[in-house]
Amino acid sequence: MTEKSFSCDRATMQWSLFLLLLMGQCVFITCQLYEYHFIKEEMSWDEARAYCREKYTDLAKVFDLTDMRRLQDSAQNQTQAWIGLYSEPGRDNRRWHWSLPGEEYTENKTCWGDTEPNDGAYPENCVMTSMAWIDFPCTHTFQFICYNETMKNNKTFHLTETSVTWTQAQSYCRQHHTDLASGLDQIYSEEFKKLKNSTASWIGLFRDSWRWSDGSNFSFRYWDSFNDGLNNRTCATTLLGRSGRWSSAGCDQRKPFFCYDDKLILIRENKTWEKALNYCRQTHHDLVSISNPHQQRWVQERAKNASTPFVWLGLQYSCTLDLWFWVNDNLVCFDRWALGGKTEDCGMSAAMTTGGQWVSQRENETFNFICIKH
Prior knowledge:
With about 375 residues, this protein is of the alpha+beta class. The chain has helices at about 10-20, 45-55, 65-75, 165-175, 185, 190-195, 275-285, 295-305, and strands at about 1-5, 25-30, 35-45, 60, 80-85, 95-100, 125-130, 135, 140-150, 155-165, 180, 200-210, 210, 235-240, 245-250, 255-260, 265-270, 285, 310-320, 325, 350-355, 360, 365-370. Keywords: Membrane, Transmembrane, Transmembrane helix.
C-alpha cells in the first residue's frame, strides 16, 4: 500500500488516483486534517498559548509518533520548543490514561487487586498486572506485554521477559510493535489471557497531572523519563535535538513554540448524508475521509462530542460499481467497520459511532457530521 500526499483540490486527486491505480497500487490520497506551525519568537508558555489561540487553534497537541515526526520536520533546527501540555500539580489532580492513543480509561474495580490502587509508595503512577492490577512507581522494573495492530485491524500480543522500567517498556513497544497493551478490550481478550502468566508485567496504564491546552484528553506522552509533574506548575517542551522526546520547564521561561491549526470541524446539526455532503462542500471543503489509523484516531476524538449516536463520514456505497468509495475518490484500503455493521445496499453511507467504529446507515437518516475545512 502507498500513501501519497497531494493538494486537496478535486481535479488533482482524481488525476493522481487514476495514474496510481493504473500501477495496481492501493493508494491513499492524503489531505492533512491539521497543520503545525513553528514560531521562532521566544515567549513564555502562557504568551505562546495566547498567540496560538489568536492566530491558529491552540498550542500544539500531539496524538502519536506520527505527530512527533511532523513536529520535528517543521522545527527548523531549534533545540527546544513549547507544546501545549502543562501540569497542574497535586496528588488529587492526577488522572488515569492508557498509553495507546485513542483508548479511554473507564473505572473498573474488578480489574484492581484488593485495596488497589493504593498509591502506597507515592507516587505510584504505573500499573503492572499478575493476577490483578497493582499500581507501582514507574521506576520499578518488570517484564511487559506489547500490543501490535496492522492496517487491517489484525491484533497480536507479545510478552517480553526482560525487566525494565515502565517508560523503557513503552519505548520498546512503540519501536517494535504498536504500544504497551492498553484498554479493557485488549486486557479481556483471550489472546492476552493466554500470553499473560503469574509473573508481574507492565501494561499500558498510567496516571499523571498533565493537561492539554485545548482541553482534549489525548493520552500520548513522550517523556525522556517518566515525568510525574508533582511539584510546581510546569509546562512541556519537546527536545528537538534528542529524537523529539519531551522534558518540562518552568512555564515562565521563554522558548520558541509550536501551534496547530485544526482542519476538522464537527457540525452539531442533524442532516441527511447528501445534505451533510453539500453543506461541507459549500461551507468548508468536504465531508471527512479517513485513509489510515492516525486519521481515524483524530476523527474519532472529534466524534466523541457529537449530539447524535453517529456522525456521517464521506464514505458511500455504489450499487453500480458494487464497492465503497470515499468522496475524495480514495478506495477503501483501511477500515474500522463494527462487527456486523457493514451493509452493502443501495442508499447506504457510512457513519462513525461515538466510540470510533464505522456502521452503514440509510442516507435519509439525520446525524451530526464532520467536515474538513479549507
